Amino acid sequence: MASRKSSRGAGSSPSPGSKRETKHGGSKNGKKEGLSGSSFFTWFMVIALLGVWTSVAVVWFELVDYEEVLAKAKDFRYNLSEVLQGKLGIYDADGDGDFDVEDAKVLLGLKERSVPAQPASPESETIQPAEKSYVESEHKNADVELEEEIQSVLHEALHSQPDADLLADDLGAMEPEPYEAAVSYEYDMDVEKTMSDPEAPAEDMVHGNYNEDHEPKHEKQTETQDTGVEDLPEEVNEATEPDEIIEDFDIDKELSVESKHKEDDVATEPEESEMPVQAEDYSNDDLVGKSEREIEQDKTEKAKKKKKPKLLNKFDKTIKAELDAAEKLRKKGKVEEALRAFEALVNQYPQSPRARYGKAQSEDDLAEKMRSNEMLQKAINTYDEVVSLPNVPSDLIKLSLKREADRQQFLGRMRGSLVTLQKLVQLFPSDTSFKNDLGVGYLLIGDNSNAKKVYEEVLSLAPNDGFAKVHYGFILKAENKIAESIPYLKEGLESGDPGTNDGRFYFHLGDALQRMGDKDAYKWYELGYQRGHFASVWQRSLYNVKGLKAQPWWTARETGYTELVKSLEKNWKLIRDEGLAVMDKKRSLFLPEDENLREKGDWSQFTLWQQGRKNENACKSVPKTCALLERFPEATGCRRGQIKYSIMHPGTHVWPHTGPTNCRLRMHLGLVIPKEGCRIRCAQDNRTWEEGKVLIFDDSFEHEVWQDADNYRLIFIVDVWHPELTAQQRRTLPAI
To answer: 715 — phi, psi (to 5°)?
Structure first.
């Protein structure tokens, strides 16, 4: 090393620097000379030689550890996919929250890390077997390609970071939060009925009655109906009816079509959110089960349905500019100004249907903004006034009456809504969609007989109407005509018609098939799960809160209700003796199960609490048991459950079924249990009861019971809130 240095410096020839001075600094006699033509080439060679010798010096004296640089870059390259996905945050080394030049210096070892690196999580370190071969092959190929790509990779990473940050911000902004799913105005009062009726059916009745069996999307609404209207956006029509897609003034949001079940949305607090399990796009579901010819016919029909409706009569066309100006205010959200503008138009032109309809819309909007039922009633009255005016376009009549019926249902005026729907059918007898809506109106008041007649009429006019088929099948099943209901439910679902992709119909078709011993039941349950109606094939409740832990069987420790379980098991004989006394002296208090859940046998129940309300008369017969339970609000306050005695006699079989909600767990305390012959299945696991012991299961999962013993079985049922529900959810979730 030393000899190389001395040999380079010992030569007698002038150095390049001295040559440069002599040649370009001036002549021997001190006179300056101009730059020669070859001077540029000389400078170029000098700079090139300096670069070469600098590189040699860097390597010779090990000024930079190139192996470490390459190793770091290699590691960095393996994460290129993350770079391209905007995930450079994992390389943030200086703690400033992003990846920048300073972080790159730390990565390359040119700067010390200012913030200790967080250890990688076990999950992030684990490589699945299927991925290992891919990673290994990447390592082999990387060594060959790395030196050529290192500069481009680093350059791309550093220069793409601003976009990655923006992407991360966008993703963060798009992160979905818990929310209340779309409210069903057509069915919201069914839960209110359940809440207000002390004798409402208890276990699983929501699956046996259309009025109490709607999707969970509407439950929250019932809590606010006494105090005000939810602030909800307006409906969007999906071409359910001919000539009703509104384009003038962007009124297409006004059409509320029950037969397609596209309802308004409500914004509520996340804690109270109750929603469908999944949200998927099934916009092409109308193609399910149809031939190419039928599909082509559907397209033709839809094209017809998209024809622009006529909302203006001859007179309204003369004041269109004024109507446009008022409507523009409404669409901009200036509801009060819009209402004043339309009121002025109505005063000036009292015979203008469009002005009055605009006034009704503005009142409707203001009712939502104010959460005022009084204002909503004004809107309902104004919608009705539109129809009474002369020369009203038929499309405007349809819009007004449909919205009037919808708002009446929202306020729980089911019979008033029925009258409005009847008027629609009378005015437009050939429009089967209005008949479909009328059928729903009858179902909402529990008049299945008239609803059945309506759907029979629809099917006589339109034999392939899927909406009519699923509802007709629903009614047949409620009449226990199981075999007859199956083809209607099946064909209706296969039609893909608007309003048929509803969890209830998948539920009831599967249930009907199960009762007929047809294994295709689980095919439909699977399809219902895929379309977001069920949490799983086994967990098929319809009134659900998203994100709750779901498993068929629970232990006391898992529930957190260990004190309740201990108290029940400690006092089981007291509970048993009071129940037996009622059986002996007041047998009439045990009411037969009337939910159509039994294939055969005798099953009765004696209810102490229901929907969080104590049955005072019942508790007088079992005072010690009720006093014992008063200490446990998770049970007595569970407004989605019951507390009751349940007696089942030999020869009883309970069909596979599911409870209505995932918001509760069910405890069974064994009181009188035959030695053999009694068992319960939840999902795919069978259990048996023991006297003095508590079984806990989630009855939103499919369960089934057999009683083949030689004596009766008596148990005590206690429903409790799901332990993961918040205190606010327990206070605000509607009762079932």
So the answer is: -130, 165
CA distances from 493 to 516, 528, 542 (A): 19, 10, 18
Please state, in angstroms and as integers, the Cα–Cα distance from residue 242 to each residue in 247, 309, 440, 452, 543, following that order.
14, 9, 20, 24, 33
Do residues 512 and 488 touch, judged by C-beta distance below 8 A? no
pLDDT single digits (tens) 51-99? 767 766 655 655 555 555 555 555 444 444 444 444 444 445 454 545 5
CB 667 within 8 A of CB 718: yes
Report d(CA 454, CA 50) in Å as an integer.
97
How many Å apart are CA 384 and CA 364, to the nearest integer? 13
Is 440 in contact with 186 (CB distance < 8 Å)? Answer: yes
Distance CA 74, CA 70 (A): 6
Whether the Cβ atoms of residue 615 and residue 663 lie closer than 8 Å to each other: no
pLDDT value at position 58?
A: 56
- Measure the CA–CA gap between 305 and 247, rounded to whole angstroms: 13
CB atoms closer than 10 angstroms to residue 461: 13
What is the C-alpha to C-alpha distance for residues 514 and 597, in angstroms, rounded to an integer? 12
Please choose, from the candidates 550, 592, 595, the residue with its C-alpha nearest in 3D space to the C-alpha of residue 723: 550
In order, the DSSP letters of 321-364 are HHHHHHHHHHHTT-HHHHHHHHHHHHHH-TT-HHHHHHHHHHHH
Q: What is the mean pLDDT of residues 715-724?
A: 98
Rounded-to-integer distance, Cα 54 and Cα 60, Å: 10
Instruction: Quote the CA–CA distance of 259 and 597 in Å, as a whole number.
Output: 29
State residue 225's pLDDT score: 34
| Sign of the alpha-carbon torsion through 272, 274, 278, 280 | negative
Q: What is the mean predicted confidence (pLDDT) over 282-299?
A: 45
Cα 316 to Cα 312: distance, rounded to the nearest angstrom:
5
Structure tokens at 624: 């010690």
For 653-708, how does the pLDDT look when each residue is reduced to its tens digit (9 = 90+)? 999 999 999 999 999 999 999 999 999 999 999 999 999 999 999 999 999 999 99
Is the separation of the CB atoms in 348 and 340 below 8 Å?
no
SS3 content of the chain, % helix, strand, coil (to 5): 55, 10, 35
Query: What's the alpha-carbon Rg for the chain, to the nearest Å?
Result: 38
CA 442 to chain centre: 29
Q: Which residues contact 620 (CB under 8 A, 6 or more apart)?
A: none
State both tokens at 274: 């109750």
Q: Confirm if 666 and 643 have CB atoms less than 8 A apart.
A: no
Q: Count other Cβ atoms within 10 Å, centred on residue 648.
A: 24
Angle, to 10 degrees, between the axis of helix 414-427 and the axis of helix 394-410? 160
**DSSP per-residue string spanning 44-60:** HHHHHHHHHHHHHHHHH
The whole-chain average pLDDT of the chain stands at: 74
d(CA 713, CA 646): 8
**Lowest pLDDT segment from 150-164, 569-583, 718-732:** 150-164
Q: In terms of Cα–Cα distance, which of 73, 118, 75 is closest to 93?
A: 118
Q: Which residue has the tokens 């240095």?
A: 5
Sheet of strand 685-687: strand arrangement: 598-600, 652-657, 703-707, 678-682, 685-687
Q: Look at residue 110 in the predicted model and tell me its pLDDT.
A: 52
248, 214 Cβ separation under 8 angstroms: no
CA distance linking residue 627 with residue 167, whole number of Å: 59
- 476/96 Cα distance (integer angstroms): 66
Confidence check: pLDDT of 609 > 90: yes
| Distance (Å, whole) CA 683 – CA 704 | 9
